[in-house]
Amino acid sequence: MTTSVREREPVRLAGVGRRYGARGPWVLRGVDLHLAAGRLVRATGANGTGKSTLLRLVAGVDAPAEGRITGRPARTAYVPERFPPALPFTALGYLVHLGRLQGLGRAAARARAGEWLERFGAGAYAGTALAGLSKGSAQKVAVAQALLAAPGLLVLDEAWTGLDAGARAELDRAVRERVAAGATVVFVDHDPRRLAGEADTTLRVEGGRVRAEAHPAGPAPVRIVASGDRPLPDRLPGGAVPAATGEGTLFRVDAAASDDLLRVLLDAAWHVHRVESGRAGERA
Ligand SMILES: Nc1ncnc2c1ncn2[C@@H]1O[C@H](COP(=O)(O)OP(=O)(O)OP(=O)(O)O)[C@@H](O)[C@H]1O
């Protein structure tokens, strides 16, 4: 998927609260957060503490009862815990429809929909009615709809659940690509190994409050954009993961491993376009 790396304002939550019903108990209250561009954000907390509520608010599919949320990019995508398959579309027809709603032309929507179905191993189901899809295939369509228009904010609520191992790995890759391209990705997953060690921030949801824990010493403070035709080793220095962008391939790597990675790229006759330190969206 091609999207350029660019910076944008963070999504800001200021004094956000949510309760269900005018007199219901507050599920979340006094939530103040900055979710910067180019960050991977994990939300954690015990069952029923309000993680899904928080994700729906961040995605904009639910509105806060008090407080404000600003800076949400125009292209925001969301995968809910449960995907509604009872719509009169085929898998491809649904994706093209949503792609068009997200601003893509018909031909581009068709092409992207086909590409994402293939990437998730669901190309064979393009012509199947949504209602006729297995749970796993329906989940692939749910994930594909979120990735279609290269969102600047991607919100994933247990989106890996129901996917087969290949599709789960593909979704991991797609998340890394979006983050590398400058998107904010916020996710919840019951498996603590999901993208373990890769999140820039953990949101701990507890007792109606959300505490943001940044991982400043976490991975990837250096971003290298390069291009080349020759294959690279499977294991790159610092565990760097290549991600396709409009400008070439982007690698996020720890500063300690960046020289080694540059050497590997140059040895493979890759052209290095840019080396940046600091995360996208970080203020000087
Ligand atoms: N639409 C709703 N109407 C009424 N109450 C709701 C609604 N959605 C969530 N709640 C309540 O809000 C609280 C938080 O729910 P939420 O689903 O956000 O938590 P969660 O941390 O995502 O839970 P889980 O880990 O079980 O998915 C729960 O008490 C839940 O019953």
TrEMBL record:
Q: Which positions fall inside the ABC transporter domain?
A: 11-232
InterPro entries noted in UniProt: AAA+_ATPase (IPR003593), ABC_transporter-like_ATP-bd (IPR003439), ABC_Transporter_VariousFunc (IPR051782), P-loop_NTPase (IPR027417)
| One GO MF term attached to the UniProt entry | ATP binding
Which domain of life does this protein belong to?
A: Bacteria
List membrane-spanning regions: none
Pfam families membership: ABC_tran
Q: Which SMART domains match?
A: AAA
Q: Which UniProt keywords apply?
A: ATP-binding, Nucleotide-binding, Transport
PANTHER family per record: ABC TRANSPORTER ATP-BINDING PROTEIN ALBC-RELATED
Q: Which protein are we looking at?
A: ATP-binding cassette domain-containing protein
Q: What is the lineage of its organism?
A: Bacteria, Bacillati, Actinomycetota, Actinomycetes, Kitasatosporales
